[in-house]
Amino acid sequence: MKLGTFSLSLSVKDLAASKAFYETLGFTKFHGDENQNWLIMKNEDTAIGLFQGMFPKNMMTFNPGWDSNAQPLEEFDDVRDIQKLLKDADIALDSEAEGDSGPASIMVTDPDGNPILIDQHR
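Predicted structure:
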């Protein structure tokens, strides 16, 4: 199973304060829209997402179909195929992908309560 590029999505209280803090640690804005209360920041190959008011807690995020620079991969496992593999393994999904192709996402929670978002953008 190929989950795609990994990042940590952080639920932040103050986007501007979090952005300034992570800039001090060497992160720079990679993608996002501060007017929509979200940013993706990178330090070399490490990516974090800052999301104000969007998610109840921090979560791991995987993006099938993207490399670490959000560039399309030629070959990848579609989120719906990943969903089927998880269901076949009797792993409960918190949300499921819809449609037959294109952008979609699923959510699952690990045994310790950590949310995992598998978010395909293409």
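Summary: The beta strands are 5-12, 28-33, 38-43, 46-52, 59-63, 93-95, 104-109, 115-120.
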